[in-house]
């Protein structure tokens, strides 16, 4: 992926470890998925 990003001139922006609030949309989805689907089993 790094080679592709470099050749395509795409800047990768990574989330800092332990900073899940930097990607709140995904964290919200993961929480709902866990609550509605995974915890039901």
Please, could you describe this protein's structure?
The chain is mainly α. Helix content is 51%, strand content 0%.
What is the gist of this entry?
The chain is mostly helical. It is built from two helices and no strands.
The unreliable regions are: none
User: Which range does the strand content fall in?
Assistant: under 5%
Topology as a string of helices (H) and strands (E): HH
The computed structural class is mainly alpha
Alpha plus pi helix count: 2
Query: What's the total number of strands?
Result: 0
Which oligomeric state applies?
Answer: single chain
Share of helical residues: 40-55%
Tell me the span between the first and last alpha carbons: 35 Å
What is the 3D shape?
A: elongated
The average pLDDT is: 83
Radius of gyration: 15 Å
List its traits.
single chain, 41 residues, mainly alpha
Reconstruct the topology from this structure.
Blueprint: H1 2-7, H2 24-38
């Amino acid at each position: 992926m790094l080679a592709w990003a470099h050749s395509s001139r795409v800047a990768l922006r990574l989330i800092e470890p332990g900073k899940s609030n930097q990607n709140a949309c995904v964290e919200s989805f993961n929480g709902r998925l866990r609550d509605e689907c995974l915890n039901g089993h």
